[in-house]
Design a protein that fits this description.
Blueprint: H1 11-25, H2 37-44, H3 48-61, E1 64-67, E2 71-74, H4 84-91, H5 94-118, H6 121-139, H7 146-163, H8 167-175, H9 177-194, H10 198-214, H11 218-253
Antiparallel strand pairs: 1-2
Helix pairs in contact: 1-3, 2-3, 5-7, 5-10, 5-11, 6-7, 6-10, 7-8, 7-9, 9-11, 10-11
Length: about 260
């Protein structure tokens, strides 16, 4: 039997694999600048030419962007599932908002379940920081803008996805981040106008979800996340029904041309 030669792997290929893993796991995020070449070579324990070769391979794959005199960056288009024009189109359609909530119902319940099971101490630190930022927005009632609150809410849910250690869930949530943020902003505007207790309910729901994850209560985390999205769905359906009743009443007030 003829045995072929074993091809020796290039050092740059090992560096490529490490950087790809860091991108996939979210250690390196879209748009983030890589450390300086010298520092990164020292971190990996490799020569600068080998690192440079690895970077060039990742640039060719579209994972990195190299800027002349400006360093190397993770491509900011990674995970961008929706373009800005499509975001604007979806934002203005109530049926798209409902569809996103249905999608979030399953996705975020699973994220919460796995986060409660798998979160590391570092994940819990990040989750605490995101939760504190959200609570700070709630505390500034009437002063924090809907956009600020929406961004803080979305970042909290993104932190949960990161703590789930499920790469597909993480990058799905990350790819939907802008759409999720806009969905939250749209939702809270209508919810606060319709029900006076909405802010209190959202505060309590996020607190309960945070506690369940931090305490490792996976089943409770999944249930609370599901109940949170269900509450939002119920309130928004009530708002849409109110809008339909108003539209019918306005039509009755208009004279019919003959």
């Amino acid at each position: 039997m003829e045995v072929g030669q074993i091809r020796q792997r290039r050092l740059s290929d090992n560096i490529v694999e490490q950087l790809e893993t860091m991108i996939l796991e979210g250690t390196l995020q879209p748009g983030q600048r890589l450390p300086a070449e010298r520092a990164l070579a020292e971190q990996f324990g490799v020569s600068r030419p080998s690192l440079r070769e690895a970077v060039q391979k990742l640039v060719a794959k579209g994972l990195l962007i190299s800027r002349q005199g400006g360093g190397n960056y993770v491509s900011d288009s990674l995970g961008s599932s929706f373009s800005d024009p499509l975001l604007a189109l979806l934002e203005g359609r109530p049926e798209a908002q409902r569809d996103l909530l249905e999608f979030r119902h399953t996705l975020e319940a699973d994220c919460a379940y796995y986060a409660a099971q798998r979160a590391t101490d570092l994940d819990r630190e990040h989750l605490l920081a995101a939760f504190d930022a959200l609570q700070a927005c709630y505390a500034r009632e009437g002063k924090a803008s809907r956009a600020e609150e929406g961004a803080a809410d979305a970042r909290f849910h993104l932190a949960i996805a990161e703590a789930s250690h499920n790469l597909v869930l993480l990058h799905t949530i990350r790819g939907l981040f802008d759409l999720l943020k806009r969905n939250v902003v749209t939702n809270i505007g209508g919810m606060y106008a319709l029900r006076s207790e909405t802010r209190r309910m959202l505060v309590e729901q996020h607190q309960a979800l945070f506690d369940a994850i931090m305490q490792g209560r996976a089943d409770d985390a999944r249930r609370i996340a599901s109940e949170h999205i269900s509450y939002v769905q119920d309130v928004l359906e009530e708002r849409e029904e109110e809008s339909r009743r108003l539209a019918r009443a306005q039509r009755r007030e208009r004279p019919v041309s003959r």
